[in-house]
Design goal:
Layout: H1 10-17, E1 24-27, H2 34-40, E2 48-53, H3 56-65, E3 72-76, H4 82-88, E4 94-100, H5 105-109, H6 135-141, H7 144-155, H8 160-171, H9 179-189, H10 192-197, H11 202-213, H12 215-227, E5 230-240, H13 243-258, E6 277-279, H14 289-294, E7 302-308
Length: 314
């Protein structure tokens, strides 16, 4: 098994985390171990790296890649359970956390995982953990209203209702069990112009994948888990790949940096709230042209970094 995930914005992440040889770091999304490898290679004997992933294939691949580093380990767990895992390992606060929210190249390219709308006769799966509700379950059991809402909200697809209606109509003839059949249904549900301008399947497949894996719920909880696992001065770096993720990260970071919540017409602060964090970059960091030419999947990546302030609430 070759689990590939070319690490995007690698140097920017390492610089943003300010990796120290004796620090303790978390990679919340190990994938194939790309970012983890470069963090671990910068650690000394007293440093430590704990990488998380809910995909058992990723855990196996990253563990092999990091085997040369005695101070690195990979945990089979979702980053939304970070603090419980750290407590179980006897680890207190950490110096930095990285969360790369992209779907790995392996998951997209391995047809048996059912993530890609380019695959032919691949099972409609999309489960990162290989457990629980699959994409086929979603497509064949959700009501038309549920499907339309999911595709519109998670995929930001303006033809969501058309697509949902066509899915319900087609599954009435036979269950939708493969990625290529779903892709054909989506293409047939949108105007011809939309088919010419771009691949019309991307948004719907994204929406179903996000629903299957509960991605936004896990991200919301995971951001809190990560931020409140930091030491004073510790940093959280998050790479997002679409607007819903980036909006959530941006808003959460802004909330931690806000401080006073008194109405603007109050003559002085009475709430006593202080900023819990400081933005390292006010605008998201994006890939430079050299990286874009080397790795097309970095095109939509945005990196945001926040530093936890001294005395922030736990």
């Amino acid at each position: 098994m070759e689990f590939l995930h070319i690490p995007v914005l690698l140097e920017q992440c390492i610089e943003g985390l300010a990796v120290r040889p004796d620090g303790v770091y978390i990679d919340g999304t190990a994938g194939g171990g790309g970012h983890s490898f470069h963090i671990a290679s910068r650690l000394g004997e007293k440093g430590r790296l704990i990488s998380f992933d809910r995909d058992p294939d990723a855990v196996e691949a990253a563990s092999k890649r990091l085997a040369q580093f005695p101070n690195a380990m990979v945990v089979h767990s979702n980053y939304s359970q970070m603090r419980d895992v750290l407590e179980g390992l006897g680890v207190g606060k950490v110096d930095g956390v990285l969360m790369d929210l992209g779907v790995s190249s392996f998951q997209l390219d391995e047809e048996s995982r059912g993530f890609s709308y380019h695959s032919v006769d691949a099972p409609l799966d999309m489960r990162m953990s290989k457990e629980g509700m699959s994409a086929a379950d979603v497509v064949n059991t959700f009501s038309c209203e549920q499907l339309a809402k999911m595709i519109f909200e998670y995929g930001e697809e303006k033809f969501a209702r058309n697509i949902a209606s066509r899915i319900v109509e087609e599954r009435g003839k036979a269950p939708i069990m493969t990625t290529d059949r779903l892709a054909d249904i989506v293409r047939e549900s949108v105007p011809q112009k939309a088919r010419r301008d771009k691949n019309p399947c991307k948004k719907t497949f994204q929406a179903i994948r996000m629903a299957v894996n509960g991605e936004l719920d896990h991200l919301s909880k995971g951001l809190d888990e990560a931020f409140y696992s930091l030491k004073d001065g510790g940093r959280l770096a998050v790479i997002t790949f679409h607007s819903l993720e980036d909006r959530l990260v941006k808003q959460r970071f802004a909330g931690w940096c806000r401080g006073c919540t008194c109405p603007p017409d109050f003559p002085q602060c009475v709430c006593g709230n202080k900023p819990q964090g400081r933005l390292i970059n006010r605008k998201p960091i994006v890939a430079e042209q050299e990286e874009l030419e080397r790795n097309n999947r970095s095109r939509s990546a945005k990196l945001r970094i926040i530093e936890r302030s001294a005395g922030a609430d736990a």
